[in-house]
């Protein structure tokens, strides 16, 4: 598979990225090993994980995904050199005291999280180390509006960058990225990096799919002008855009056991909104009318967008992985893109 530069970093990444957050929850270790083997075989050499995984997040599975990847790497001599490995430091606790108790991201917090990830992964360096969500208050994970009254920021962005710079200097990480960010956050991180000679953000990992195109409301211009790559997560809207929930009347509580939508924590989020399910069904029907599977169409939407540096696919089986990689060859006609815009005008972004 081809590779492309990630922002202004030295990293060359594949346009499809293996997301691993289900490893250790929905996906057993044995199945995760098979998925990683197949991903490497098919040329998908950009992999993403995080300290808080597996998801849905809970204390019992904190760090489980990184540990599974670490055991896979230990059993595959030479595999580490073939992979661009990304992980994330969790932001301030969002009801997850097992990660950290405080509301900030101190230097000690970031250092300890990085050391923990390195230990679980069994590697000396992480290629792309990302801030999983901002330390400051932002509208994210289904929250639509910024509220100054909720601001509880304790660690300035410059201090966060200075800590990440130390990790770069120590050879523990190569490049940095952000996740669940806003235009202000990207601009400020880049400004501070350029002003003080600190590591420059290479990428932002935000949701982007047919039922959440909020990236196109300013983030696309911001990152294009600043040369920061989008790592699109949830391209299938946690499965809503695969067609698996299209049965008439199905809601989150009715979702098949073991699917993402069957988890109460997911049902309470943006993807569990009735409007998101309704919009997804309309897009899925559109795919069928054009002779495509819903998955093919939804992934091709991300794969073919100039906005996307790499699309993160979270799979739970080999068949899912193969379908996602095969969709790379799907081309979307211009009239279909126009229909996407018409549906977006009607439904807007219910998965935002």
Automatic annotation (TrEMBL):
Keywords: Oxidoreductase
GO MF term (any one): oxidoreductase activity
CDD domains per the UniProt record, alphabetical: AKR_Tas-like
Top-rank lineage group of the source organism: Bacteria
Pfam families per UniProt: Aldo_ket_red
Keyword Lyase: no
Domain NADP-dependent oxidoreductase residue range list: 15-343
Gene3D superfamilies (UniProt xref): NADP-dependent oxidoreductase domain
Claim: Transferase is one of the keywords in the record: no
InterPro entries given in the database record: AKR, AKR_Detox_Biosynth, NAD(P)_OxRdtase_dom_sf, NADP_OxRdtase_dom
PANTHER family from the UniProt entry: NAD(P)-LINKED OXIDOREDUCTASE SUPERFAMILY PROTEIN, NADH-SPECIFIC METHYLGLYOXAL REDUCTASE-RELATED
Protein name: Aldo/keto reductase
Organism: Comamonas kerstersii
């Amino acid at each position: 598979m081809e590779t492309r530069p990630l922002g202004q970093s030295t990293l060359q990444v594949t346009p499809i990225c293996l997301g691993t957050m289900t490893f250790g929850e929905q996906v057993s270790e044995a199945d995760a090993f098979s998925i990683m083997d197949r991903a490497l075989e098919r040329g998908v050499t950009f992999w993403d994980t995080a300290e808080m995984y597996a998801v849905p997040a809970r204390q019992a599975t904190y760090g489980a995904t990184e540990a599974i990847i670490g055991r896979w790497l230990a059993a595959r001599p030479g595999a580490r050199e073939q992979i661009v490995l990304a992980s994330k430091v969790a932001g301030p606790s969002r009801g997850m005291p097992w990660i950290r108790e405080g509301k900030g991201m101190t230097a000690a917090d970031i250092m300890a999280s990085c050391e923990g990830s390195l230990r679980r992964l069994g590697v000396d360096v992480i290629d792309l180390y990302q801030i999983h969500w901002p330390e400051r208050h932002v509208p994210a994970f289904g929250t639509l509006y910024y509220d100054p009254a909720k601001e509880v920021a304790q660690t300035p962005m410059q201090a966060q960058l200075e800590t990440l710079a130390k990790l770069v200097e120590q050879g523990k990480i190569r490049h940095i990225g952000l996740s669940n960010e806003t235009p202000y956050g990207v601009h400020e991180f880049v400004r501070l990096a350029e002003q003080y000679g600190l590591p420059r953000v290479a990428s932002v990992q935000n949701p982007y799919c047919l039922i959440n195109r909020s990236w196109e409301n300013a983030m696309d211009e911001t990152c294009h002008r600043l040369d920061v790559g989008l790592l699109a997560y949830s391209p299938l809207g946690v499965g809503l855009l695969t067609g698996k929930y299209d049965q008439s009347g199905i809601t989150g509580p009715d979702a098949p056991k073991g699917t993402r939508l069957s988890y109460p924590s997911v049902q309470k989020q943006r993807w569990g909104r009735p409007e998101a399910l309704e919009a997804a069904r309309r897009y899925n029907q559109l795919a069928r009318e054009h002779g495509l599977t819903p998955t093919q169409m939804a992934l091709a939407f991300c794969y073919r967008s100039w906005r996307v540096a790499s699309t993160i696919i979270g799979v739970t089986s080999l068949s899912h992985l193969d379908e996602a990689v095969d969709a790379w060859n799907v081309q979307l006609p211009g009239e279909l893109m126009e229909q996407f815009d018409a549906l977006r005008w009607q439904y807007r972004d219910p998965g935002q």
